[in-house]
Amino acid sequence: MPLGNPNSAVQPVTDSKAVTGRLPAFSVAVLLAVVALSVGCGGGSSAEQGSSDEPEDPGGSGSQTEPTQNGTPPAEDTGTPEPESTTANAGPVQVETSVVATGLEAPWGLVFTPDGEALVTERDSSRLLSVDSSGNVEEIQRLPENGTGEGGLLGLALSPNYESDGNVYVYYTTDEDNRVARMREGEAPEPVLTGIPVLTYHNGGRIAFGPDGYLYVGTGDAGVTSNSQDLNSLGGKILRITPDGNVPSDNPFSGSPVYSYGHRNVQGLAWDANGRLYASEFGQNRYDEVNIIEPGGNYGWPEVEGEGGGPYYIDPISTWTTDEASPSGVEILKGGAIPQWEGDFFMAALRGQRLYRLDLDESGAVVAQEEFLRGEAGRLRHVTQAPDGSLWILTSNRDGRGNPVPEDDRILRLGPAVS
Predict the structure, then answer these.
(1) Alpha helix ranges (H) inside 274-372
(2) Under a CB-based contact definition with an 8 Å cutoff, are residues 222 and 197 in contact?
(3) Is the N-terminal amide bond of 302 cis, ω within 30° of 0?
(4) Which fold would CATH assign to domain 11-416?
């Protein structure tokens, strides 16, 4: 059932585990109706034969089409919700979704400040926004990006010392490159890492500070597949730098920001409670991936897509056909509002139009999978844990590939049902 139905009922879900000054606010509709969440059975980590529809990030050969120069792709199909799934050894988990805010334009990055304020980037408008829990949205400033297609104002991260230094880190596109810059809200950005390859697609863009205090940067191959295996290129990599943009002394390649390589287009970064780094990545014609990232690891692109890369390349822990996923932002729930989901991995899917939950064991392997919001909210760009332990989810229906409804784009909240 579509989001926004005030008559919909909460459904059980089963689980396998017992600033500176602001500019004037723009108009945003806040929908108070609580809506039901449709849950489908997960398909496991092995994928079936994919369709020939256009994936999220075109640029490969075979059955898929190259994008136009303005980045406009064909429309996509909308999935159909599946029945509620069940798993053994667990009781039901009551969850519900609600709409926090509407009227956004292709939101891409989302972080929460220590005082509970959400900061959001919009890819195409280059706006940095502030959103509170009541759905009030304010424009803080516009960044000097100049991207087309999949480029623009992308990733967002807060300094580990944000409460004292107030620094916000952003990843954005210019005429010459993709780059990472830091700034205080309302001030001009100061570049800390430049020279990341740029094109209308495969721009990467997700950034996040790890538990070690260093900044991790997911990049794409910018349509040049050889970039991913070239250790002298910043494309097709996960990079690791200090908050000032320097190279940490313990990086796997001396003097280089490269942390891992052989990636096609990294879109999500998250750490589990044991400090393991997970990354989501767009595939080409066959498989999208989630990988556990090892320092110095080679993940195979363009020599291999999906599993089967050993012993030379590291295999993913989960794959999907490109029509099932086009994975974007990810989150691992830690101290969340639903204890049964503690340590679970969540992934927003664009072309797949659903939110995946992966149940991970102690080794980081996937032991179960569930789907949420399938076909209900359209394309999903990112998922982040909120201060109250719920999950906030960004839709991406105004990015040139979706079919927006009048309220799009939206921020959704997934949390425990209120009895």
Answers:
(1) none
(2) yes
(3) yes
(4) Neuraminidase (2.120.10)
pLDDT score at 418: 83
Q: What is the pTM of this model?
A: 0.83
Angle at 347 between CA 171 and CA 2, to 5 degrees: 110
Q: What are phi and psi of 380, to 5 degrees?
A: -115, 125
177-187 pLDDT, tens digit each: 999 999 999 99
Query: Whose CA is closest to 47, among 274, 375, 356?
Result: 356
Using only C-alpha atoms, the chain has a radius of gyration, in whole angstroms, of: 20
At 340, give phi and psi (nearest 5°): -65, -20
Amino acid residing at 267? Q
List all residues 6 or more positions away from 24 whose beta carbon is below 8 Å from its beta carbon. 138, 139
Give the integer Cα–Cα distance in Å for 294 and 314. 9
**Amino acid identity at 182:** R
Instruction: Look up tokens 């797949």; give the residue.
Output: 352
Report how far residue 31's alpha carbon sits from residue 5's, in angstroms, rounded to the nearest whole number: 10
In 3D, which of 206, 304, 322 has the Cα closest to residue 262? 304
Q: Could you tell me the two tokens for 158?
A: 């807060």
CB atoms within 10 A of CB 112: 17
Q: How far is CA 153 from the centre of its chain?
A: 14
Q: What is the pLDDT of residues 342-384, one digit of tens each?
A: 999 999 999 999 999 999 999 999 999 999 999 999 999 999 9
- Contacts of residue 71, Cβ cutoff 8 Å, sequence gap at least 6: 148, 149, 150, 151, 200, 201, 400
* Band of residue 168 on the pLDDT scale cut at 50, 70, 90: very high
Q: For 76, phi and psi rounded to 5 degrees?
A: -120, 160
- The two structure tokens encoding residue 192: 């800390």
What confidence tens digit (pLDDT) does each residue in 129-149 have? Answer: 999 988 999 999 999 988 899
Whether omega for the bond prior to residue 311 falls within 30 degrees of 0, making it cis, is yes
